[in-house]
Write a structure and sequence with these properties.
The structure holds three protein chains of three kinds. Chain A contains four helices and no strands. By secondary structure, chain A is mainly α. In chain A, α1 (2-31) crosses α2 (33-43). Chain B has one domain (2-135). Chain B is 88% helix and 0% strand. In chain B, α1 packs across α2 and α3 (68-97) packs antiparallel against α5 (106-135). Chain B has helices at 2-17, 24-63, 68-97, 99-104, 106-135. By secondary structure, chain C is mostly helical. Chain C has one domain (3-160). Chain C is 79% helix and 0% strand. Chain C is built from five helices and no strands. Chain C has helices at 3-32, 40-74, 83-103, 109-128, 136-160. The chains are: A mainly alpha, B mainly alpha, C mainly alpha. Chains in contact: A-B, B-C.
Chain lengths: 105, 138, 165
């Protein structure tokens, strides 16, 4: 039973890291064009690059969390899920504000 | 279309979670269908975006009367959609791995409800963005 | 193959399910309120009606999307931004949110029910009223006023029938 809690917690952590990564790479790639060109060079399209890297980052961070975390309590799980929800909302707002800023300023 | 069906599946998940007695089998099936549909949408949407949109549709929008449809809504849509399948994966695996915890723990159930609601909201915003982008192709 | 006709047919079927379902849900609920208690057989009628409304909503959602896709493919993208189209999407979102809030018991039945009825009937009226030229704000005001009128009418119907509110 605790293995399931531990695995779910690892997946939640993986998702949180992935979302933060998507926001950072999106903003940096738009502000620093050589990064965008680098992504295009290695993965043919910048969006495809972000997609593939997101999957890799998700799997890597979930594995690291699972390997190094101790017992997981139910309380930790609900905190993790709420954090994931909050980070999704904040990331959405940040990206929207960034694209508005890029368009009008 | 697959994205819309995924929204329907996750709306059904959200709706079932807010009831007093939840049907865990229904939640498992609905969330799994939703996840598969999101993944299908990711692949088909990505294919269309990478191969067709950039060269054919984007230039039309940028020289048209609504260039912000691309610079705001398309950019927003393509990046937000990158993390929705991961949110859907977390929700789906919660139902498969934490069946008893969800039934017995109000806090976990509430947290998954909020996450399912966010998936529905974000996907709806993405669909609406798609409509705005399509309307800008003149 | 005339896709527009096929899509329109499905759209009408979905609207019929939704409008008919919400009308009958209201009638069955008023019937159930006569003795102030919703017994198992009345509850089962309501559940079936809600299922029909859900099916109608899904058909409308998918056929509506297909209709927009058809407009885009046929090169009539300008109609996507029309007031009628955008407002009908807005109505579908209102119906969805209203269902959630009502199930969560965040809004009482006397508020949820006029919103459901007005939204569904507004969708059918907007669908029929081709060539309507109106601003979003005017449409929103008419919708809000219509919801209040429907709510007040339902209140007086319940009072007239001496239902246990």
């Amino acid at each position: 039973m605790n293995k399931n809690l531990k695995l779910t917690n690892a997946l939640i952590s993986g998702a949180i890291v992935t979302i933060i990564f998507v926001v950072i790479i999106t903003i940096f790639a738009d502000l620093y064009l050589p990064l965008k060109d680098l992504l295009k060079q290695y993965f043919w399209h910048h969006w495809v690059a972000k997609g593939i890297l997101s999957v890799i980052i998700f799997l890597f961070s979930a594995c690291v969390k699972y390997t190094f975390s101790k017992e997981t309590l139910e309380k930790e799980l609900s905190t993790g899920l709420n954090s994931l929800t909050l980070i999704s909302i904040c990331s959405t707002i940040i990206l929207l504000m960034f694209f508005f800023y890029e368009t009008f300023y | 279309m697959t994205g819309l069906l995924a929204i329907v599946a996750y709306y059904a998940v959200w709706f079932d979670l807010i009831k007093k007695d939840i049907n865990i089998d229904f939640l498992k099936k609905s969330s799994l269908y939703g996840l598969l549909l999101f993944l299908l949408s990711w692949l088909s949407g990505g294919y269309y975006y990478a191969l067709y949109y950039g060269n054919v549709v984007k230039p039309i929008i940028k020289i048209g009367p609504y260039p912000w449809a691309h610079t705001i809504f398309m950019e927003f849509k393509e990046h937000i959609f990158l993390f929705i399948p991961f949110l859907a994966l977390v929700v789906t695996l919660c139902f498969f791995l934490l069946e008893n915890n969800i039934k017995g723990n109000k806090e976990i159930k509430q947290s998954i409800t909020y996450l399912s609601a966010i998936i529905v909201f974000l996907s709806t915003i993405i669909t609406f963005s798609g409509i705005i982008i399509s309307g800008a192709v003149r | 193959m005339d896709w527009e006709r096929i899509i329109t047919a499905f759209h009408i079927i979905g609207t019929v399910f939704g409008v008919g379902g919400s009308t009958f849900a209201e009638i069955f609920f008023l019937q159930a309120l006569k003795d102030g208690v919703v017994d198992p057989s009345e509850s089962s009628f309501l559940k079936i009606t809600y299922k029909v409304i859900h099916i109608g909503s899904i058909i409308i959602l998918l056929s509506g999307f297909a209709y927009l896709l058809n407009l885009r493919i046929e090169g009539h993208s300008q109609y996507i931004y029309s007031t009628r189209t955008i407002f009908k999407i807005f109505l579908l979102i209102i119906i969805g949110l209203n269902s959630i809030l009502f199930t969560l018991k965040k809004i009482p039945f006397f508020i949820a029910s006029p919103i459901f009825l007005t939204s569904w009937y507004a969708a059918i009226i907007l669908g029929l009223w081709r060539g309507l030229h109106i601003s979003y704000l005017s449409l929103a005001i008419y919708y809000a006023v219509a919801t209040i009128i429907v709510g007040v009418t339902l209140y007086y119907i319940k009072k007239f029938l001496r239902l246990k509110l």
